[in-house]
């Protein structure tokens, strides 16, 4: 019989409140308010937030564009890139202890559907998205399934811990469709993930790396598509893909957990510190979002 450790004492009383950045209703904007401190249930842990970072997804939800209106059902706490310390371990959790520093894989997969059972958890048919379809990480405490927790070396700076999520996007995109060693790589789009992709390509032994902000077509190449276009994109499959022998790879999230292993190993070879350009308090989320809109920043991080 499987050993199931007893539930630990909850660290705060039922009814205690915490600060959280919330999408309160359908429409533009966020509100910094309070929410009940969650408690770790069966197979869950509670993290005390140490750092969180802002992502293009948060901008979509803040602006309440078409994509957000069709995916997000307020009210909920937003944010999905975060790093925290385990403060409560729920019943049945093994291999995670109070005090561990951890990042969160924000795609909450079910483990039972066809995709999950065939090693494609990032495409789970019952996926819940942290900070998009369920309460997320811009809060003082976050409750997550233990299987979505990625333990970090204890000396990892929390800012970099939060960046494991977008770093994973970059790793997944760079290696989608094969290796890059000895190859010429073009990175189109030099936001934080594009810049991370440049560093990853260098660490992985790419021969030449070209980074631009304008897309061009390259015969015989392969393209890993990650950022979401604002509109429907028309593509001439015959002329622009088939006759040029192009491989297109749609990249969603990270491969769970193959990408996390790869990203953790790459962290020893690349320095992500310059990617973080600004840091704000949780309350100053509006200022942080305005800065992201201006485009005059790299990765923007929130600290509780
Ligand atoms: Zn993100
Ligand atoms: Zn699934």
Explain what you see.
The strands form 5 sheets. Strands 3, 5, 6, 9, 10, 15 and 16 form a 7-stranded mixed beta sheet that branches. It is globular, with a radius of gyration of 20 Å. Mean pLDDT is 90; it is low at 1-5. The protein has 2 domains: 17-163 and 272-303, Medium-chain alcohol dehydrogenases, catalytic domain (Quinone Oxidoreductase, Chain A, domain 1); 170-250, NAD(P)-binding Rossmann-like Domain (Rossmann fold), CATH 3.40.50. 24% of the residues lie in helices and 26% in strands. Helix 5 crosses helix 8. By secondary structure, it is α+β, with helices and mostly antiparallel strands. The protein has 9 helices and 16 strands. Bound molecules: zinc ion (2 copies). One zinc ion (ZN) is lined by residues 55, 57, 80-81, 165-166.
Please outline what is shown here.
This protein is α+β, with helices and mostly antiparallel strands and 304 residues long.
Point out poorly predicted stretches: 1-5
Q: What characteristic shape results from the CA principal axes?
A: globular
- What is the subunit arrangement here? single chain
- CATH domain fold name of the largest domain: Quinone Oxidoreductase, Chain A, domain 1
Descriptive tags:
Quinone Oxidoreductase, Chain A, domain 1; disordered N terminus; binds zinc ion; Rossmann fold; 24% helix; 304 residues; 2 domains; 16 strands
């Amino acid at each position: 019989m499987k050993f199931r450790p007893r539930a630990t004492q909850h660290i705060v009383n039922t009814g205690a409140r915490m600060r959280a950045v919330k999408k309160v209703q359908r429409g533009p904007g966020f509100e910094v308010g309070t929410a009940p401190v969650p408690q770790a249930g069966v197979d869950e842990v509670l993290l005390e937030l140490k750092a969180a970072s802002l992502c293009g997804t948060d901008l979509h939800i803040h602006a309440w564009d078409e994509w957000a209106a069709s995916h997000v059902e307020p009210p909920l706490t937003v944010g999905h890139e975060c790093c925290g310390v385990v403060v409560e371990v729920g019943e049945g959790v093994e291999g995670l202890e109070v005090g561990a520093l951890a990042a969160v894989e924000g795609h909450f997969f079910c483990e039972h559907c066809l995709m999950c059972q065939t090693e494609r958890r990032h495409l789970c048919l019952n996926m819940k998205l942290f900070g998009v379809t369920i309460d997320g990480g811009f809060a003082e405490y976050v409750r997550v399934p233990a299987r979505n927790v990625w333990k970090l070396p204890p000396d990892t700076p929390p800012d970099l811990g939060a960046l494991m999520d977008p770093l994973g996007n970059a790793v997944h995109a760079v290696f989608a469709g094969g290796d890059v060693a000895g190859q010429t790589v073009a990175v189109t789009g030099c936001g934080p993930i594009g810049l991370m992709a440049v560093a990853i390509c260098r660490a992985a032994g790419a021969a030449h790396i070209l980074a631009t902000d304008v897309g061009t077509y390259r015969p015989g190449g392969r393209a890993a598509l990650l950022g979401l276009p604002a509109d429907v994109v028309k593509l001439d499959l015959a002329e622009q893909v088939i006759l040029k022998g192009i491989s297109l790879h749609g990249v969603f999230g990270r491969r769970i957990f193959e990408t996390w292993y790869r990203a953790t190993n790459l962290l020893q070879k690349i320095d992500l510190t310059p990617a973080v350009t600004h840091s704000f308090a949780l309350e100053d989320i509006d200022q942080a979002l305005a800065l992201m809109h201006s485009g005059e920043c790299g990765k923007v991080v929130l600290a509780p």
